Prior knowledge:
Layout (H helix, E strand, L loop, with lengths): L2 E6 L4 H13 L3 E4 L11 H13 L5 E6 L3 H7 L7 E3 L5 H7 L5 E5 L5 H12 L8 H6 L10 E6 L6 H12 L3 E7 L1 H8 L8 H9 L6 E5 L4 H8 L3 E5 L4 H8 L6 E5 L7 H9 L9
Parallel strand pairs: 1-2, 1-3, 3-5, 4-5, 6-7, 6-9, 7-8, 9-10
Amino acid sequence: MNSMAIASDHNGVQLKEKVKKFLKEQGILVVDLGPYDPNNKVDYVDYANQLGKIVSNNDVDSGILICGTGVGMSIAANRNNNVRAALVHNHFTAPKCREHNDANVLCLGSWITDETETIKIVSTWIGTDFGQGRHVKRVEKLDTSAKVNKIIFTNGVFDILHSGHIELLRFAKSLGDKLIVAINSDSSVKKIKGENRPINCEKDRKSVLESISFIDEVFVFEESNTIEILDKIKPNIIVKGGEWTKDQVRQRDKIPDQIDIKIFPLVKNYSTTETINKIKEIESWLKKY
C-alpha cells in the first residue's frame, strides 16, 4: 500500500491524527479527507462515501475510516463499487480481512480500541497481502455491479479439457460480459510441452471450446504474439490459472498496468498430464467380452 485516504467523523478526529502520523512514518502517502475539529459534529456517511468513491476509482490504494464504533462507516463505504470495507475491533481480524477478503478499507472504532491497539491493528493490516489462491473466486462474487461492458481474456493449451479448465473458464466469464479465449498453436504447444503434444490439434481444440456456451470467441495464437494480441483486444481483465501471484504474472508476461489480472487457483488432482498418465496406466485397450 503506497497511498491511502483517511477520514473520520467527529468521534474519530483525534485517533485519526495518531493513525495518520503512524502511516506517514511508514512511508505511505496519506490523503486526509477530514474532519479536523472534534467539536464540530458531522455525519459519518458523507466522509465514508467520499473515501469510498476515491478507493472505488483507484485514486488511492486503500483507505481507513474511523467513527465511534466503525459500524456506520463500514455500512456506508460498502455501498460503493469495488469497496470491501472491513470492520475491525481486534488484532486477530486485521490480517484475516486482508488475507481472505482483500479488504481495501479498514473501519475502526475510537470508542472500542485505544491508540496502542489501533496502531497495532493498522500496522498488521497494511503489512498483510491478499492471500489469493482459493480466496480469489469468493472475493469476486462480492461485487457483480461493475462487470458490464468488460472484456475478459485468458489463454492456454486446453488440450484435453477437464473440470479444472471448465471452472477457470466459468470464473473468467463471471467477471465480465465477453470472454475471449486464445489457444496455443500446435507448433507453440510442441515448443512448450514437447514433440508428443498436443494430443488434439488446434482445429479440434478450438472447436471444442467454441461449443461451450459461455465462451464468446476462440482463436489460435503464437506465444510470441501475446503483446500484440493484448494491444488489439484491449481486455479489461486477464485470467491466469496457477500458483503465480498477479504481480509475478504482470512482470513475467509484461502485462500493461491498466489491465487487471486475476489468478484462479489450480484445481487439485486435475491436469492434462495427469489424464494422459492415467491412460498410459491402462493395461489393455482390447474390449473384453
